[in-house]
Design goal:
InterPro entries: Beta-lactam/transpept, Beta-lactam/transpept-like, MecA_N, PCN-bd_Tpept. The chain is of the alpha+beta class. 33% of the residues lie in helices and 24% in strands. Strands 1, 2, 3, 4 and 5 form a five-stranded antiparallel β-sheet that branches. The chain has a five-stranded antiparallel β-sheet with strand order 12-11-21-20-19, sandwiched between helices. The radius of gyration is 49 Å and the shape is elongated. The termini are far apart.
Length: 544
């Protein structure tokens, strides 16, 4: 019993069996939890803001703003810009007197790691334009990533690679430079030491050829530190130009100036190379007026070479006997010979040599039409436009309206006007057989139409070449000794209220010339000795 009792008291509850575990279940939850954590972390990383734009885009925006001088936009693209950021840029633009700046990026920004920031750079070429020398340089922009944006890491070297605190750029401009004006032998004629008449010509050339003569100022761009130049970054000299070489011959110019010392009156002399029209000398004495090129005078008896050529072309023979009274009324105007002498009947050649104005005036009215004489005068350059390179008047021969005007015009009076340059061109036309525009500078600088050259009739040229030598060898009105081979014509004219002009035109070899003396009286007495002295000053050195 006792065994039973013991069994009852000692009975325990039945042991509950643990349900069998499903293999891998706990590991599944752990993996799932791990995946959740991983996804969460990744989500945090993905949600962080990304850097906006690119280093290359920022570099281009910065350079475009710099080109437009939009310094406020530039400043916003810079990391920690200095207080004088705009001042530095404006100072460079102003100091170099720039008109514009242009930039070209060579390569896209390269990005590389450095410390804890991402850095980039962009290489570029800056081209500066202004009054200074051509200036271009290569540089680079350094960029950094800051607060998810690309910014320019600025320093003075961003403006120019050699700039740093204490350094600046400056433009240095030298004095104006000009091209020299030369005589034909290479000597300068635009210096204070040149003769007054020569300086006068140089002064007349300057306005016409200003663009050629002015070559600007030499300039340079310097890198400066504490006010002292470090080195020159760019420079240019004045434009390179050849000198302006004129046709002046100093030897002929000196001979002309010396010859005019024979008179103390206002006078002028011009000499040309007959075959080319080149002005070899232009001399003025007394006063600053350029009588040689700008004086408008009645040519007087020297114009009778033109009238004689018309008469000869229309059939008059140099040996035809004509009448030469001291005075004569022609067409209502009273003519008289410069010498106040009459010579009776004599060959036209001799009448021409003796300056028989009464003969020439009468023949012009009886044998020539006014339009005919005007046409022949045109062949000798009267009314013809020309451009010697300096201011100069043209010769005028208005068509005479009646016999009185024709008689006066035929002896170079009335409304006929010419300068010493014009009359030198008349002498050159006889010597060369063709009138051509005189010039002081190379032909390419004063181009003329080929029709400007006007050939004379060969028969007229031949006749005139026989008449003009006779003037200096046969005229008894003066005893001036000219060098052999000289041909010329003296003359006088009334000018203004009682003033008398003394003229001489002529040629020898390839030299043609003309001179006038104001208040000089008869040409044979006043102008002829000056002409002889001029030619003697050139003896042994013929113009050819």
């Amino acid at each position: 019993m006792s065994g039973m009792a013991g069994q009852g008291e000692g009975r325990t509850q039945p042991r509950q069996e643990t349900p069998p575990r499903r293999p891998g279940r706990g590991r599944t939850w752990a993996i799932a939890a791990g995946l959740v954590l991983t996804v969460a972390v990744a989500g945090v990383i993905w949600a962080q803001p990304r850097t906006r734009g690119s280093a290359d885009e920022t570099a281009r925006r910065y350079l475009n703003a710099w080109s437009a001088q939009e310094y406020t936009v530039m400043r916003e693209l810079v990391l920690d810009p200095p207080a004088d950021f705009e001042q530095v840029h404006r100072g460079v633009f102003s100091a170099l007197e720039l008109d514009a700046m242009a930039f070209r990026i060579h390569t896209p920004s390269g990005v590389f790691a450095a410390s804890t920031e991402e850095l980039g750079h962009a290489t570029f070429t800056a081209t500066l334009t202004g009054p200074g020398p051509d200036f271009a340089y290569e540089s680079r922009l350094n960029l950094v990533e800051h607060e998810h944006r690309w910014k320019v890491s600025w320093s003075p070297a961003t403006v120019h690679p050699e700039l740093k605190p204490g350094r600046t750029l400056r433009l240095v401009t030298g004095g104006p430079e000009t091209v020299p004006i030369l005589a034909a032998d290479g000597s300068r004629i635009d210096t204070p030491g040149a003769p007054r008449s020569v300086r006068q010509l140089a002064g007349s050339l300057k306005p016409r050829f200003r663009d050629w003569l002015s070559v600007g100022r030499p300039t340079r761009i310097e890198l400066v530190e504490d006010g002292r130049p470090v080195r020159t970054l760019a420079e240019n000299s004045a434009r390179q130009r050849m000198p302006l070489t004129t046709t002046l011959d100093p030897r002929v110019q000196r001979a002309g100036a010396d010859a005019l010392t024979l008179t103390g009156k206002p006078a002028a002399l011009v000499a040309l190379k007959a075959s080319t029209g080149e002005i070899l000398a232009s001399v003025n004495s007394r006063g600053g007026f350029d009588r040689a090129l700008m004086g408008r005078y009645p040519p007087g008896s020297t114009f009778t070479v033109v009238t004689a050529s018309a008469l000869l072309a229309d059939g008059l023979s140099a040996e035809q006997v004509v009448s030469c009274p001291a005075r004569r009324n022609v067409g209502g105007v009273r003519l008289r010979n410069p010498s106040s002498r009459g010579y009776g009947g004599l060959p036209f050649r001799a009448a021409f040599a003796h300056a028989c104005d009464t003969t020439v005036g009468a023949l012009a009215v009886s044998s020539l039409e006014a339009e005919r004489l005007a046409k022949v005068a045109g062949d000798f350059g009267f009314g013809a436009p020309f451009d010697p390179g300096v201011p100069a008047v043209r010769a005028d021969f208005p068509v005479p309206k009646d016999d009185a005007a024709l008689a006066s015009a035929s002896i170079g009076q009335g409304r006929v006007r010419a300068s010493p340059l014009n009359m030198a061109a008349v002498a050159a036309a006889i010597a060369h057989g063709m009138w051509q525009p005189p010039r002081l500078v190379p032909a390419e600088k004063v181009p003329t139409d080929g029709e400007a050259r006007r050939p004379l009739e060969p028969s007229v040229t031949k006749a005139l070449r026989s008449l003009l030598p006779a003037v200096v060898s046969e005229d008894p009105a003066h005893a001036v000794r000219f060098p052999p081979g000289t041909a010329g014509k003296a003359g006088s004219a009334e000018h203004g209220s009682g003033r008398r002009l003394s003229w001489f035109i002529g040629y020898r070899d390839d030299l043609a010339f003309s001179l006038v003396v104001e208040g000089g009286g008869a040409g044979s007495a006043t102008a002829a000795p000056i002409a002889a002295r001029f030619l003697k000053g050139l003896e042994g050195n013929p113009i050819d």
